[in-house]
Amino acid sequence: MLISGTNLRELTGALMLVNKRYSGNVTTTNGFNRTSEKGSRYRFALRAVSSRGPGARRAASGRRTVAVCYHVFRDFMKHILFFNPNARIKTAMNVYRGADDFLAKYEAVADNNCGSAFNPVCYGDTCECEHSELAHDIYHLRATGQF
């Protein structure tokens, strides 16, 4: 993941908030690596501490992995955009240019195939998370002017 227009404080704050929801099971592979001189662009990967903990996803075959699920990414990006609505987020699945663009695009990522042509599996279905709770939260925050 590559995030522009943010700072280390916002990134660590978002990670802390995500970990409250996922019982401390989310980390980064090598921390948040600054890629610009100004310090407003960071590259990192989110990972689960335990493949059996909340927020870890399964491979299309059903095998447990330390990759985090769609919902962890969604929640992390929601928190970043709450701190900074103009942040730009680039993932392997999509590019989001601020909070409005994120709200318009993020749900479609859950329907992306992460399996094979012979064994298709939607990215949003590879975990055991509660699916709708936070999606409602972000719309509530937006409607009340908090996002």
Characterise the protein shown here.
The chain contains 4 helices and 9 strands. It is α+β, with helices and mostly antiparallel strands. The chain has one domain. The strands form 3 sheets. It has a 5-stranded antiparallel sheet with strand order 3-4-1-8-9. The chain has a two-stranded antiparallel sheet with strand order 2-5. α1 crosses α2 and α2 runs antiparallel to α3. The model has no long low-confidence stretch (mean pLDDT 85).
Query: How are strands sequenced across the largest beta sheet?
Result: 3-4-1-8-9
Which radius of gyration do the C-alpha atoms yield? 15 Å
What oligomeric state do these chains adopt?
A: single chain
- In whole angstroms, how far apart are the ends? 22 Å
What is the count of structural domains? 1
Shape: globular
Low-confidence stretches: none
Number of strands: 9
Strand-residue fraction?
Answer: 15-25%
Continuous helix count: 4
Helix content: 25-40%
